[in-house]
């Protein structure tokens, strides 16, 4: 409609002088006319020139005076020829009209205001303020003096009006046909394509963002850790098969010399399975040796001296650490002629924990172990130094700790240059003979091992301070799409 109006008018006339007046004439909103002019100007159907005009607009206060008269006029009219008491006048007019009105009326010498009495000074007055405001409202040109006075009293404010004057452009035609954007089967068949005007290519247009899979920040960090594990000089790590979230208590705890009354084996800390609630298969001869070492010791150990129960070992659970997998691997290793091994894994573990900024009920562990003859605590510290210096943490401290399955045990602390403090980065130790001997590993074989969470270093690397922003159902998918490549160290 608006487009037809503009093009139709220009067919018979030289120029649209003012888009605002044109809009009023045609009964179309100025906004609509302006949009059409812009679009026609873009395809050079018309030639549009900007018009900018400063116009005066009534303020809210100005509008009430234009409707009710200026306060000074209202005040004058409220004073009868015989005069009136000041208090009475104020009551009649209200505080604000009385206050402004009396100031202006005194200035205009319209009234005289005594201490208690107000009387007229002029016989007749005109409300010029209202007249000027009405004029401005009707877009009639007011004189400069009035404008200055109204501006000073903040009854009017300037408003910039933008419009166009419009002439025919080089591509002018009385009707604009929308250019075709596609060659279709229909217009090919009908031959219409010969007459069609096609829209030009816009080589600067941005294409659709490419949709595709995105690696989660944890996966990116995981890849980096795998590279580190595989790249430690001279030694090659093998990945452990961690594809069983469900584990028996036996491999998760008993094989690791964790006594059956240990608090971690409580349902407050561990998720036990309802269905199937127990495991069906355990290596019976080995189970017997584990029972022995728990109950009465051996290999220089006194054991825990309690009644070890098979039912407790049979209970299925969601593994609480990937050390459950390490115990399976070492048991399998012990069955063959001895061979030194380096193993690692990075996978999910589960703990029945209250969820907060730093804890989730499921997270990922990085596990590593080296099994060889004559390894010492010095070897463990050396490997950890090597491992963590590749993460940019070459400053390490070890704190004695306790795990049922390692002796000695060490918590690992790294000095974080960014955070300027020591942060706990992992747990480690040498597996106990009570764990290794029942498996059947030779007497002189020792195993050094360590474990850490994948989430903690990832949070530090990506500057995330709430673990729920990194992993779980509250993760922002936008973050997954846009997070940068993970670079550890360097
Ligand atoms: N399993 C331990 C944990 O969950 C980590 C660990 C692994 C400690 C190997 C010592 C040796 O915290």
UniProtKB/TrEMBL annotation:
Tetramer of two alpha and two beta subunits. It catalyses: tRNA(Phe) + L-phenylalanine + ATP = L-phenylalanyl-tRNA(Phe) + AMP + diphosphate + H(+). Signal peptide: none annotated. GO terms for cellular component: cytosol; phenylalanine-tRNA ligase complex. This is phenylalanine--tRNA ligase. The keyword Protein biosynthesis applies. Its main location: cytoplasm. The lineage of its organism: Eukaryota, Viridiplantae, Streptophyta, Embryophyta, Tracheophyta. Its EC number is 6.1.1.20. CDD domains: PheRS_alpha_core. It is found in: Cytoplasm. One of its GO terms (molecular function) is phenylalanine-tRNA ligase activity. The keyword Nucleotide-binding applies. GO terms for biological process: phenylalanyl-tRNA aminoacylation. It comes from Deinandra increscens subsp. villosa. Residues 342-484 form the Aminoacyl-transfer RNA synthetases class-II family profile domain. Keywords: Aminoacyl-tRNA synthetase, ATP-binding, Cytoplasm, Ligase, Magnesium, Metal-binding, Nucleotide-binding, Protein biosynthesis. Belongs to the class-II aminoacyl-tRNA synthetase family. Phe-tRNA synthetase alpha subunit type 2 subfamily. Its cofactor is Mg(2+).
